């Protein structure tokens, strides 16, 4: 028997969540966002779950190459564009679409001639103030991009800073409309939160990420409440059981002391697997399908659970760290972060297993 820790990835859930995106945005094509190794789920599962997506979007050129090698021949959008001139050559060779968020990227595109046509997407800074052209320089960039040799199309996009807050993207949407008024080209604005909450922003292409993986883009709404299914189950098992006497302490720092006699289980999962170390006592977890809580500090390779609600649990009993019984968003909330971070942080030592 090998270490029981693994991440099961459901292709059926990925496909279901893509279908849910299409129900929210029936008139739009879908860039399925697969950056960060498909939010920790692996490209192999993503390629199967998103087989019917109109395009895939990511920012890592080495992973884009893997998508092409795996046979994906529909569009691939590089959402941070080229990081240097070499990326332009690769983009031409692999027929990747490039976001352009600063003028130097157009210089590289002009310099690196070659075979193959390029599709460009100009990015407007609509208030995030991270990447993107200011509205006053967008038109000049659009005209320049449209005249570059070997450029087949120029689209327009922006990325919202606050689409997860009520009304949070309304001003940014208005700015985008003003800045792009009268320009030709396909538009893409909506991330998961805007797909659910801002139909006016759906436009030609939507760009869902987190919702495809079955987690919520909102702090105050569950993924289930917007019709999503968790794609990842982070699973392990008990590898030991301890009976504590009242007053006995648990783990590093002895931060948990048993108030009464209690049985606790040692789970083969820790922060070196990507489970958050800052998850406090009381973080939800499931043992044998029954919800219970973590106790004490999360260690590198192990954490501890309360077996009070599961008195028959023994070494070997299965544990769900997150998945269908314990939504990743609940674990994230307990640990003071968001589901996105936990999914992306699943460590390379955890095998990814496609489960259907
Ligand atoms: C990550 C990302 C998305 C997806 O965002 P979600 O909140 O995960 O839906 C969309 N567009 C861009 C540019 C991104 O970087």
Task: List the main descriptive attributes of the protein structure presented here.
binds pyridoxal-5'-phosphate; elongated; alpha/beta; single chain; 6-stranded antiparallel beta barrel; 11 helices; 18 strands; 356 residues; 8-stranded parallel β-sheet
Mind explaining what this structure looks like?
This protein is of the alpha/beta class. Helix content is 27%, strand content 24%. The chain contains eleven helices and 18 strands. An eight-stranded parallel sheet has the order 8-7-6-5-4-3-2-9. Strands 10-13-16-15-14-17 form a six-stranded antiparallel barrel. Strands 11-12 form a two-stranded antiparallel sheet. It is elongated. It starts with 5 loop residues before the first strand and ends with a strand. The relative contact order is 0.14. The model has no long low-confidence stretch (mean pLDDT 97). Bound molecules: pyridoxal-5'-phosphate. Pyridoxal-5'-phosphate binds at residues 33, 35, 79, 159, 191-192, 207-210, 217. Residues 33, 35, 79, 159, 191-192, 207-210, 217 line the site of pyridoxal-5'-phosphate.
Radius of gyration: 23 Å
Average predicted confidence as pLDDT? 97
Major sheet size, sense and barrel closure: 8 strands, parallel
Say what oligomer this is. single chain
C-alpha end-to-end distance? 22 Å
Class per helix and strand makeup: alpha/beta
Low-confidence stretches: none
- Element-level helix/strand string: EHEHHEHEHEHEHEHEHEEEEEEEEEHHE
DSSP summary: helix tally: 11
Strand content: 15-25%
Rough shape? Answer: elongated
- How do the strands of the widest beta sheet line up side by side? 8-7-6-5-4-3-2-9
Give the number of DSSP strands: 18
Helix content: 25-40%
């Amino acid at each position: 028997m090998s270490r029981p820790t693994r991440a099961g990835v459901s292709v059926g859930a990925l496909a279901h969540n893509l279908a849910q995106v299409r129900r929210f945005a029936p008139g739009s094509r879908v860039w399925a966002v697969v950056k960060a190794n498909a939010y920790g789920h692996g490209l192999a599962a993503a390629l199967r779950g998103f087989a019917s997506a109109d395009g895939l979007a990511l920012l890592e050129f080495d992973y884009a190459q893997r998508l092409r090698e795996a046979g994906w021949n529909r569009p691939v959008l590089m959402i941070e564009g080229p990081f240097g001139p070499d990326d332009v050559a690769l983009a031409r060779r692999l027929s990747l679409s490039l976001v352009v968020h600063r003028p130097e990227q157009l210089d590289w595109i002009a310099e690196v001639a070659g075979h193959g046509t390029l599709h460009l997407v100009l990015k407007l800074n609509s208030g995030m103030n991270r990447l993107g052209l200011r509205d006053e320089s967008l038109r000049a960039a659009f005209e320049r991009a449209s005249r570059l040799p070997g450029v087949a199309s120029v689209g327009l996009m922006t990325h919202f800073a606050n689409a997860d807050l009520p009304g949070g993207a309304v001003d940014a949407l208005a700015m985008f409309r003003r800045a792009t008024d009268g320009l030709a080209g396909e538009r893409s604005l909506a991330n998961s939160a805007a797909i659910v909450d801002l139909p006016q922003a759906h436009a030609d292409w939507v760009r869902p990420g987190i919702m495809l993986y079955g987690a919520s883009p909102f702090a105050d709404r569950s993924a289930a409440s917007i019709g999503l299914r968790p794609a990842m189950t982070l699973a392990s098992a008990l590898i030991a059981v301890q009976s504590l006497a009242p007053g006995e302490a648990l783990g590093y720092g002895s931060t948990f002391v048993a108030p009464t006699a209690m049985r606790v289980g040692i789970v083969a999962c820790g922060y070196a697997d990507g489970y958050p170390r800052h998850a406090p006592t009381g973080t939800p977890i499931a043992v044998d399908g029954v919800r219970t809580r973590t106790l004490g500090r999360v260690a590198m390779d192990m954490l501890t659970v309360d077996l009070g609600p599961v008195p028959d649990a023994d070494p070997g009993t299965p544990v769900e760290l997150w998945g269908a019984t314990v939504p990743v968003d609940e674990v994230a909330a307990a640990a003071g972060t968001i589901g996105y971070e936990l999914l992306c942080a699943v460590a390379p030592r955890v095998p990814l297993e496609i489960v259907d």
